Structures are given as structure tokens and as C-alpha cells.
């Protein structure tokens, strides 16, 4: 990832309070990044404490206002956004045919709306900067695919297997794995 000379890289990590998101947050801090970490209750984390290089923003990333607060925190505290790690996500461990309307709505809210709202906010900032990267994970599902059980984690698969890079000309470049 390219960097501006003399500037620390700034990352946003959603789903930062546990699991993969916590590990990514720690790794970025160890590598000299400044980080804005988000989850519903990240400020209550026993693992993460606010510091000069770490800002914690509580909130549901599936709500547009939360996504705005997260992006605004990065810009107001650190002046830029170089990396977005879309990590917030859920997996409902049951067959697709047993999903309730509530299961479906929860999946869409977190896995799709959360991804959409924060990415929308961050891309706008990255285009102003004419640089940045977006990496997305996907909710962990079963280790072995089971018939009729993978739709929940696949609701976000297309967006999650993409790295979006904003070039120095402000144009986006999409790289699929």
C-alpha cells in the first residue's frame, strides 16, 4: 500500500471488538497504523483501549449514521482514511430453508447494509485523497459446506471477495481474488 511520506497510515476496522476484527486491529496498531475500531460496544472491550493511535466508535454499522460517525472519526482525529477493513458480519448457523424473516433481516442489516454504508462513506473520502484500499472479510460459516446452509454467509460473498483500490488519479480499481 502506498503512503504519503512521513504520514502514518489510517485504517478503519468494523467488527473490531472480537475475533478476526480484534486480531486485525491489533496487527495494524503493531505495524504503526492509526486505527478507528467499530463494533456495537467496542468501547467496553477489555482488549482495546483508546489511545493516540486508536479511536473506538460504538454503534451498529448497519445504520447509516454510525457509518458516518466512523468515517468522520478517522478524518477528524487522523486527517485521512487509507484502509477500510469491512469485517463486521454475522452467520446464522442453520439451513436456509429454516431462516425466519428476522434471520433474513438481520443478515441483510449487518452483512449488506453495514458493508454498503461504511464503504460509501469511506470511498467518498478516498476519492478526495485520490488513494486508499478496501478489504472485506465474510462471516465465518461452516468449515465444510452443508446442503442448503450457506446462503447466510453468501449474502455478502460477492462484495467480500473484492479489494477496491483508489488510484492516485481518483479512479477506482477493482481486484477480485
Q: What's the helix count?
A: 5
| Residue-averaged pLDDT | 83
- Give unreliable regions as ranges: 143-163
Q: Describe the strand arrangement of the main beta sheet, using strand numbers.
A: 3-2-1-4-5-6-7
The CATH topology annotation reads as: Rossmann fold
Order of helices and strands: EHEEHEHEHHEE
The largest sheet is:
7 strands, mixed
How many beta-strand runs?
A: 7
Strand content: 15-25%
Query: CATH homologous superfamily?
Result: NAD(P)-binding Rossmann-like Domain
Topology:
Layout: E1 10-14, H1 19-30, E2 34-39, E3 54-58, H2 64-78, E4 83-86, H3 101-129, E5 132-136, H4 151-154, H5 157-160, E6 162-166, E7 172-176
Parallel strand pairs: 1-2, 1-4, 2-3, 4-5
Antiparallel strand pairs: 5-6, 6-7
Helix pairs in contact: 2-3
Structure report:
The chain has 177 residues and is an alpha/beta fold. 36% of the residues lie in helices and 20% in strands. It has one domain (10-176): Rossmann fold (3-Layer(aba) Sandwich), CATH 3.40.50.720. The chain has helices at 19-30, 64-78, 101-129, 151-154, 157-160, and strands spanning 10-14, 34-39, 54-58, 83-86, 132-136, 162-166, 172-176. It has a seven-stranded mixed β-sheet with strand order 3-2-1-4-5-6-7, sandwiched between helices. A hairpin with a 5-residue loop joins strand 6 (162-166) and strand 7 (172-176). Helix 2 (64-78) packs parallel to helix 3 (101-129). The two termini are 17 Å apart. 40% of the residues are buried.
The gist of it:
By secondary structure, this protein is of the alpha/beta class.
Amino acid at each position: 500500500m502506498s503512503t504519503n511520506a512521513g504520514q502514518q497510515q489510517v485504517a478503519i476496522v468494523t467488527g473490531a471488538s472480537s475475533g478476526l476484527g480484534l486480531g486485525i486491529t491489533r496487527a495494524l496498531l503493531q505495524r504503526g497504523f492509526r486505527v478507528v475500531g467499530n463494533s456495537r460496544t467496542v468501547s467496553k472491550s477489555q482488549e482495546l483501549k483508546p489511545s493516540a493511535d486508536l479511536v473506538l466508535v460504538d454503534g451498529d454499522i448497519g445504520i447509516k449514521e454510525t457509518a458516518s460517525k466512523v468515517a468522520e472519526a478517522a478524518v477528524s482525529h487522523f486527517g485521512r482514511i487509507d484502509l477500510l477493513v469491512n469485517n463486521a458480519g454475522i452467520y446464522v448457523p442453520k439451513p436456509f430453508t429454516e431462516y425466519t424473516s428476522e434471520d433474513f433481516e438481520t443478515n441483510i442489516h449487518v452483512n449488506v447494509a453495514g458493508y454498503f454504508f461504511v464503504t460509501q462513506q469511506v470511498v467518498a473520502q478516498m476519492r478526495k485523497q485520490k488513494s486508499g484500499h478496501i478489504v472485506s472479510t465474510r462471516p465465518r460459516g461452516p468449515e465444510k459446506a452443508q446442503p442448503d446452509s450457506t446462503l447466510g454467509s453468501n449474502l455478502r460473498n460477492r462484495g467480500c471477495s473484492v479489494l477496491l483500490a483508489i488510484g492516485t488519479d481518483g479512479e477506482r480499481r477493482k481486484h477480485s481474488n
